[in-house]
Amino acid sequence: MSEDTSKKEWVNNTTSIKGWLYIGILSLIPFVNIVAFFLLAFIEKNNASLKNYARAALLQVGIAVIAIIIVSSFRSISLDYLERELLRWAPF
């Protein structure tokens, strides 16, 4: 393969501004964005920048879900119970 052909393939394998706008709009739709990110991350035909963006977005979604689970497990402790326990140990 000549050098000109490889440069053309590299230029043709980029995402346009219109494509990035579609991805941005698609990422705003709940649950559809996760399916779209999985498709973008694991389809071989996509270029490297789309794959990396989708993988990073899936990683962010995963971290957010784990953080929500951790925070909601702490939230299950009743605030009344916490207040009673703190007042019981208060020196006044």
What layout of secondary structure does this protein have?
Blueprint: H1 3-12, H2 17-26, H3 32-42, H4 48-75, H5 79-89
Helix pairs in contact: 3-4
Describe the structure in brief.
This protein is mostly helical and 92 residues long.
Describe the protein.
There is one protein chain. With 92 residues, this protein is mostly helical. Helices cover 76% and strands 0% of the residues. The protein has helices at residues 3-12, 17-26, 32-42, 48-75, 79-89. Helix 3 (32-42) crosses helix 4. The longest helix has 28 residues, at 48-75. It is rod-shaped. The N and C termini lie far apart (83 Å). The mean pLDDT is 80.
Tell the overall outline.
rod-shaped
Sheet having the most strands:
none
* Proportion in β-strands: under 5%
Mean pLDDT: 80
The DSSP helix count reads 5
Total strand segments:
0
Unreliable spans: none
Topology order in helix (H) and strand (E) letters:
HHHHH
Helix content bin: over 70%
Structural class: mainly alpha
Distance between the termini: 83 Å
Rg result? 23 Å
